[in-house]
Amino acid sequence: MVIATLADQITRGVDSVADVLTAPFADPVIRLGVTGLSRAGKTVFITSLVANLMDRGRMPQLTAAANGAIRTAYLQPQPNDTVPRFAFEAHLSQLTAPAPSWPEGTSQTSELRLSLRVQPSGLLSGLSGPRTVHIDIVDYPGEWLLDLGLLDQTYEDWSAASLDRAAGRPQGDAYLAKLAAADGAAPLDEPTAQGLAQQFTAHLRASREAGFSDCSPGRFLLPGDLAGSPVLTFAPLPPGNYGRRSLGREFARRFDSYKRNVIKPFFYDHFAKIDRQIVLVDVLGAIHAGPAALDDLRGAMARILGAFRPGRNAFLTRIFQGRQVERILFAATKADHLHHTQHPQLTAITQALLREAQDRADFAGAQTSAMSIAALRTTVEDTIDHPDGPLDVVRGRLLESGKQAAFYPGKLPQDPSHLLAPARDGAENWLDADYSVMNFAPAPLTMRPGDGPPHIRLDKAAQFLLGDRL
């Protein structure tokens, strides 16, 4: 095992040196990582971003689009032949059909290469022609990113944290009850192991459905071809003296195998090569789910920032090999579910969550930012009469019934601490407000030539993530 590990590290080191030597003679490449937490709209974001970079009529805040520096944009075969291609054309067809529908979310890593012909700006712009800049979009589940924190933990550490969280989350009591009937010191019994793993997975799925963000291990939720394998057949146990061939000893071994055979290869092959990263966050959904879900989101953001700080972890320091993610954007999605008069409040709450995450993660290095966006606008704004006065609402087509409806989610506070403080203090409910969410279907689109799909601040997000390199 040691020899294989050393050989793997040498191979990766040679590849890294080769990349450095050939970089000055190759077209520049920006590797943009896109991930999302708990149905934040990752697939729609990538589809709309690519469509709006190809037809840039709605991208005035992307400087290179506004001043005409981007001459053309086109898709090319991705450089990695072993990773599934992001199904851009199929997703765009669904969103722009006469009766549009939401595409299925992806459950595995995928890639897409978009190439831009860009005219350089500055003093030497007249002396050189357009250059090609490749944007390699790497799409991966946010659950996998949160797994990075497991690399720093022993099985005992992870078990203690998982059992502590389970006590206050959906189906957590059901898992604790099943655990009480099991004996971790008893000889390994595979049906018992499978039953505990299945009940723990049901608890994670129910927690995600209820709006919680940190539901690791991520592959329990998105197992792919690992479903039913021993590497996903473990669960947390209370502290104990677990001897050889016991259930507890085997669970600890499988936890270590999960880190070695599932988490580390993902970060070697994909994460360590990312230059820019956007993390899509359903802040409105967390607020609606309650203080506990919002506080969990804050903790998840801290863990994500920790994933981009390799100095704290010897393994990460090795795989980054001097590379660093340069910019990280946390984007609160579904801004179209709010009237624009409430967008500043949503952005302020997201910024406050990011600041607290930075403090908790002791993070420094990459440039970070937070904003509120809608990658695809599904609503129009309206003002309706209300007994308490005019009410600013949004109107859209409901996903469940297909009927048009006006929606008011509740008034977000001007001061984010009015939400963050109760969440941090463990409040069970919001005391003076009731926040709602609505599932809107995509609206039929009528786009002029040269325009991409309608959005809110997608161009501003693109400027932060890509603008300086264009």
Tally of separate helices: 16
> Which strands sit side by side, in order, in the main sheet?
2-3-4-1-5-6-7
What percent strand? 5-15%
Number of domains: 2
The geometry reads as globular
Could you name the ranges where pLDDT drops below 50 across 5 or more consecutive residues? Answer: 1-25, 310-314
The CATH topology of the largest domain is given as Rossmann fold
Radius of gyration: 23 Å
Mean pLDDT, to the nearest integer, reads: 87
Largest sheet: 7 strands, mixed
Structural class from helices and strands?
A: alpha/beta
CATH uppermost class of the largest domain: Alpha Beta
Determine the fraction of residues in helical runs and give it as a percent range: 25-40%
The helix/strand series, from N terminus to C terminus, equals HEHHEHEEHHHHHHEHHHEHEEEEHH
Q: Tell me how many strands there are.
A: 10
CATH architectural designation of the largest domain: 3-Layer(aba) Sandwich
* End-to-end Cα distance: 44 Å
